[in-house]
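Intended use. Records like the one below are meant for learning the mapping from a protein sequence to its folded structure. Do not use them to infer anything beyond what is encoded.
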Amino acid sequence: MINVLLNKDTPLALKGFSQKEKLDRLRLRFTQRLLKKNIPSFLNFEINDPWPGEVDKARLLLSGCFDLDGVLLEQQQPNWDPIGLDEKHLYRLNNFDWLRDLKTLGGEQSRQKGRQLIAHWITHNRASSAPSWSPQIMAMRIYNWLAFYNFFCSSAPDDFLDVFFDSLSEQLHQLSRVQTKSLDDMTQMRLGRALCISGLVLNEYSFLHEKGLNIFLRGLQEQILLDGGHISRSPAALIPLLCAAHDMRMALQLGHQKIPLLLQSSIERMNNALRFFCYNDKQLALFHGTQEGEKQLLSTLLSLAGNRQKMPKSLPQSGFERVAIGRSLITMDVGGAAPRDHDLAYHASALAFEFCYGKQRVFVNCGTHPYNADWQRALRHSAAHSTAQINNLDSAEILDNDTIGRKPLNIAHEHEPLDGGDYISAMHDGYLSTNGIKHYRQVGAQNRGKIITGQDHFENISGEGSQGTAQIRFHLHPSVRASLTRDKNEILISLPGGTGFRFYWSDAQVQLEDSIYMGQGNSPIKTKQIVLSAPLHAAMTSVEWLIKLEELS
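Structure written out for the chain above:
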């Protein structure tokens, strides 16, 4: 039987295989048929991927250039494991997410390019131990192959389909044997999605449907908090997980399956948290390894979420509070460190806050880098956030392995109306073991959001004298300009369009210092920060500050 098959015309997508490799693949298919585990030849239904792609990236790809999150890889003949390509960009190259870009562009040329690259990948990635066969890459690739099947397989020749389904079966066989306990949070979810959807659309793998669904539901139960936030406390972690949850619900609906209550409730709670973390510019707050995010993707997610529920003022399990009065919006981090095994994105940002006026970001945290580990580590320190430090130390210790060592053990907060305004009051003891200091902060808005007030108190409970100096930082968004008046008694903060604020303070020295913004892209943007410095010489040291809205001439 095998010899007969080999004597037929060699399928186009199998050219480049050695005779032994052709034999091995045909033996696999023949064995599967003998065991009545046939390789599939079609999908039961089409997966309607709703997420936006990028036309510019697709056009680059047609010209032979991969845009991998800002890293351009020019290849007339694809190399799926280029020398020097880091792990994150290798992931982007081999997970076939870029099929979404080709589909968004559309047209026969895009369709053929997709098939060409898939066939080339199959030919040149036969070793299941290769990096491109890691569970995190394989789970994404399987989903993307299924999600865009009707796009790239439209008008595809039979020889392509034969090799495509052969490779898909081989990958599913390997992925279904992976032990999920060894995987990170998101990889577990993507693996569950890939197996479940494969089981729904492929009759030959229907047994994977329930297995994948159980993996996904278990991940939701473990990772999604009651308020809809992610256990890592990172707003960014919500995005891929919420997308995957929508994918699962849609596939189950198309497959005429019952939607589990846990899946539906998790989507609703995550939608709520996403709306909480999105500012009026429809992009994300910069806490715990988060950038502003892809505007189109966030817009799609927010449209799917709708506005059926009132915007929450608090995410109590996630540890965030929000003040919204008039055009002013304050978001404050009042939570502790994420649990062990979920703290790799945690920043030392105890009591940090961000302030927006309308769609304009004013006070920000510095953000993160999308893939550079050195930048990511540097931006986790307290100095990269709009909060207070003592002697330039961090409120939590970031270890060499990127986990958290010393950290605040006690964090408390209240959120209450006061004097016609709305205020958040909080405390943490992250500096207690190093300096014998507890940090108290109150931030709020009044006068219809035209006045923002803050107080930072440092309680010395060490029983000793001076404990050094507190530094209170206010990082400015790059589009905001700040200047110290001649008498050095106030700072003028100018927003685009002529609106601005006057910044006042007491009992501290002030400096305008350089800062950087990594809220978007992969290159730091120069900006400024206001730094208040106060010696800690008493039982209680207090610094008060205020910003007042006015039209600046």
